[in-house]
Each structure stands twice: as C-alpha cells, then as structure tokens.
Design brief:
7 strands; Rossmann fold; alpha/beta; globular; binds NADPH dihydro-nicotinamide-adenine-dinucleotide phosphate
C-alpha cells in the first residue's frame, strides 16, 4: 500500500545498533527509508550499519550537545530528516532509596532528556521539509510502577507526556509525534533484567496474554506505520505493542 511507502524519506534511529532499535530500523529500511543509526558502541554501530546500509553515528546521548549533533549529522549525511525514532534507553535496577543522584540523572538523561533535545534539534529540519514523524519509545513502565526501577519509570512516564506536548505544539507544522510502549521484548536490556530480578522471566510470560516474550521484529510494523503517511492523522498517542500485557487489570 502506497501510504506505507518510505522511499525518498530519511530516518534516524537512536539506539539503532541493537535490540528494539535495530528491529525498527530494519523495518524502516525495508519500507524504503534511507537510514542513520546512533549508539555509543562503535563495533555494534559498524555491524548494524553494514547490515542496513545505514550511516552510523557514535555518540553518548547523556550529553546534551551530542543529542543535537547526532540529529544535525544525520540530516547532513542523509541530505534531509523526515523521521526520528527516539529509542536509546537504559535502566539501573535497585530499590528507590539506594540510587545516587548521578544514577538518577544518567537514566533520565538517556531516556527522556535525549528524546527532548533530539526532537528539538529535528524540528527545524522537519519544518523546512514541510512535515515529519517523531516516534518515542516508552514502556509498560509508562503505565505501571516497578519497585526496582523508579528513575526508569519516571523517565518513561515523562516520555508519554513529552510526546503529547510535542504533538500538540507541532501538529500545525505537519509533524506527528507518537509513543510506542513495548511490552516485554527479548533484548540485551531485558536479558540483564532477567539476570538481576529473580522470577522476572516467568512473571512476564505468565502475565502476557500472547504467551510469549516479544521480539525486536514485533516492533517493525508500528515503526513503519508511525513513520509513514498512513499515520498522518495520528498524533499524541501512546500505543502498546505488548501481546496484550497492558489490557489486564
Ligand atoms: P538494548 O540495550 O538492546 O538497546 C539499547 C540501545 O540504546 C542500544 O542501541 C544502545 O547503544 C543505546 N544506548 C543506550 N544508552 C545510550 C547512550 N547513553 N547514548 C547512546 N545510545 C545509547 O535495549 P532495548 O532494545 O530493549 O531498548 C530499546 C528501547 O526500548 C529503550 O528505550 C528501552 O527502554 C525500551 N523498552 C524496552 C523493552 C524491552 O522489553 N526490551 C520494554 C519497554 C521499553 P550502545 O550499547 O551502543 O550504547
């Protein structure tokens, strides 16, 4: 269907060198988009960039200047920027009383502030092009609390409210801003979580109506939809892709 066609469009996926970001980047490339991916690990970047024929950008998005530079470099290397996926994310798991301020800031800066700063930097490029698409990655912890993830939950709740504010502000510029809320997806992040939190694997499995963990490929369809003309009247939403997890009380 033509409205899902991304040929002629340029996309930047932060954290596109692995996990969910790589799954979404692959789907965007298959739909025809030219791609840039960004992450800290030069080796992971090189492998993903070769697979996707993407430009790769090495950066630490906890630094404000790096968020802006990532966007400008992607736009320069691709010649335009139509699609920004703010996917880079991290977690530090412990009881709320045990976090240092540095740990709190590290999670908030990676997951929330970087999405704000990259979106801010993308705005002039998208406005100039007559429109654009921003896809922010939230979590089930945008909706639910977790005793072992206070800064992560705060950052992911913030991602949804940031999404709504940007969507309202930029709708007249034809820029649609939406959030995706993945359920439990098998990636490096959740492999670490399963190592650290006893019983997590079984609890997630038991609570997910689909009866399985998700895969990065499960996020491909929503990425293409929210990046394409098919979603031109969809903005400010937060869409779970969770095998039914959030539909249970
Ligand atoms: P991964 O750990 O596999 O991927 C995280 C990505 O973010 C990597 O590409 C990593 O690149 C990048 N990244 C992390 N920190 C930084 C940083 N400071 N600067 C630049 N890049 C960074 O995890 P997932 O694929 O699981 O997570 C992707 C997103 O999905 C995150 O926002 C996460 O919170 C969210 N999510 C994941 C869920 C899951 O079940 N897996 C569920 C809900 C949400 P590098 O290693 O090179 O730094």
């Amino acid at each position: 269907m033509d409205s899902f066609d991304l040929r002629g469009k340029a996309a930047l996926v932060s954290g596109g060198n692995g996990g969910i970001g790589l799954g979404m980047a692959r789907a965007l490339a298959q739909a025809g988009a030219a791609l840039a991916i960004a992450g800290r690990d030069a080796k992971k970047n090189a492998v993903a960039a070769a697979q996707l024929k993407a430009a790769s950008i090495c950066c630490d998005l906890r630094e404000a200047a790096a968020c802006r530079a990532m966007v400008d470099e992607a736009a320069a290397r691709l010649g335009r920027l139509d699609i920004l996926v703010n996917n880079a994310g991290t977690n530090i798991r412990k009881a709320p009383q045990d976090y240092s301020l540095e740990e709190w800031r590290s999670v908030l800066d990676t997951n929330l502030t970087s999405a704000f700063l990259a979106s801010q930097a993308a705005y002039p490029h998208m406005k100039r092009a007559g429109g654009g698409k921003i896809v922010n990655i939230g979590s089930m912890m945008s909706l639910f609390g977790a005793s072992f993830a206070a800064p992560y939950g705060a950052s992911k709740g913030g991602v949804v409210q940031l999404t709504r504010s940007l969507a309202a502000a930029w709708a007249r510029d034809n820029i649609q801003v939406n959030a995706v809320l993945p359920g439990w997806i098998d990636t490096a992040l959740t492999r670490r979580a399963r190592d650290e939190v006893a019983g997590l694997h079984e609890r997630a499995l038991a609570r997910t109506p689909a009866g399985r963990w998700g895969t990065p490929e499960d996020l491909g369809g929503i990425a293409v939809f929210l990046a394409s003309a098919a979603s031109d009247f969809v903005t400010g939403t937060a869409i779970p892709v969770d095998g039914g997890y959030s539909s249970l009380g």
